[in-house]
Amino acid sequence: MLRTNPVDAVFHFAAKALIPESVANPGYFFDVNVASAIAFLETLRDFGVKRFVFSSSAAVYGNPKVVPIPEDHAKDPVNSYGETKLMLERVLRWYASAYGWTAVAFRYFNASGATSDAGENHRPETHIIPLLLEAVNGERPYFEIYGDDYHTPDGTCVRDYVHVSDIAASHLLALKMLPDAGFTAYNIGAGHGYSVREVISAVEEVTGSKVPVRVGKRRAGDPAVLCASPEKLKRELKWEPRHSELKNIIQTAWEWKMKSAAIAA
Ligand SMILES: NC(=O)c1ccc[n+]([C@@H]2O[C@H](COP(=O)([O-])OP(=O)(O)OC[C@H]3O[C@@H](n4cnc5c(N)ncnc54)[C@H](O)[C@@H]3O)[C@@H](O)[C@H]2O)c1
After folding, report:
1. DSSP letter (8 states) at residue 7
2. Which of 61, 81, 108, 186 is flagged as catalytic?
3. Ligand 1, atom 38: nearest CA belongs to which residue?
4. Cβ-based neighbours of 46, under 8 Å, separated by 6 or more
5. How far apart are the C-alpha atoms of 144 and 150, rounded to whole Å?
6. Which residue puts its alpha carbon closest to atom 11 of ligand 1?
7. Coil, strand or helix at 235
8. Is residue 108 lining ligand 1, measured as CB closer than 6 Å?
9. Given 31, 49, 190, 195, which is the most exposed site by the fewest CB atoms within 10 A?
10. Residue 8 CB neighbour total at 10 angstroms
11. CA distance 235 to 164
12. Is 81 one of the catalytic residues?
């Protein structure tokens, strides 16, 4: 690919990303997300590629001390997944200063929603919106809430959901607006959060069906609230979340799911 096509910039999305697996098997995560990624960076260097956009994560912050979380918040990951993202960010900072790279790390909060031809389908599925849609669609018996005794308005965890189309737009803006060498990190989130119960209600409204729900135990390491401050991204790259209204996220995910099921039938 690099030999046959001139490559101007790279978007690096590939990673191991299942948090429980990262806790149980950190060596594998450091190998894939850090060691293999550095080998990849070195290959890019051999081919003279100097613009790099990295999918980082809100997991670099760990348990937030301030919400909404700004980019300069302390970084204290609580799982090896977040640690690998932070390590690669640091590696990129050095590539930028030593090799003149323009490197951008986007710290995604909860990436969600779908376009007409691409949506979420992880195996195993661990993401809240596809799990809820599977429960509504009878593909799983119920949706489990991981704890409803958090210090939040309805007791369930609050998260910041950002539509994949808004994430994609930020990547294109990075290429357009960041011509100079250097490393920059940006949060990508809508800037406000929804509780698990609010997401359930929105799914019921969009699909017109009741979600079968059970309340289970808290999951280890789940902060009560994770919400981004996207102000830096708005200010510096003129980014605005245009698709990240919760109902639109769910509507697009549901439409994609129904379309995929119809194609498979
Ligand atoms: N989905 C989210 O909410 C979210 C939040 C924060 C960050 N991110 C990051 O965004 C990126 C994409 O997330 P996603 O949800 O689509 O994850 P995903 O797990 O669905 O996709 C990652 C893909 O990378 C592939 N991959 C892993 N290691 C590879 C390697 N060495 N070589 C080639 N392919 C490899 C995996 O097989 C998988 O298909 C990841 O880097 C993830 O860490 C996602």
Report:
1. -
2. 81
3. 14
4. none
5. 15
6. 13
7. helix
8. yes
9. 31
10. 10
11. 20
12. yes
Ligand 1, residues 108, 163, 249: which to mutate, most atoms within 8 A of Cβ? 108
Specify the pTM.
0.95
Taking the C-alpha atoms of residue 162 and residue 244, their distance in angstroms, rounded to an integer, is 5
pLDDT per residue over 187-237, tens digit each? 999 999 999 999 999 999 999 999 999 999 998 778 899 999 999 999 999
Say yes or no: CB of residue 14 within 6 Å of ligand 1: yes
Task: Determine the Cα–Cα distance for residues 159 and 193; give it in Å rounded to an integer.
Answer: 5
- Burial (Cβ within 10 Å: 0-12, 13-18, ≥19) of residue 48: exposed
Beta strands in 118-200 (DSSP E): 143-146, 158-159, 161-163, 182-188, 194-195
CA distance 212 to 188: 31
pLDDT digits (tens, 9 = 90+) for 39-74: 999 999 999 999 999 999 999 999 999 999 999 999
Task: Indicate the top mutation candidate among 57, 120, 123, 166 to test ligand 1's pocket, ranked by most ligand atoms within 8 A of CB.
Answer: 57
For the ranges 124-128, 208-212, 261-265, which has the lowest average pLDDT?
261-265
Query: Quick one: tokens of 253?
Result: 């995910």
Which atom of ligand 1 lies closest to the CA of 12? 41
DSSP character for 200? H
Write the Ramachandran bin of 45: left for phi over 0, alpha for psi from -120 to 50, otherwise beta.
alpha
Residues 167 and 156: beta-carbon distance below 8 Å:
no
Q: Kind and range of the H or E element at 105?
A: strand 102-108
Q: Please name every residue paired with 215 in a beta bridge, in sequence order, or none if there are none.
A: 145
Q: Separation of 124 CA from ligand 1 center, angstroms?
A: 13
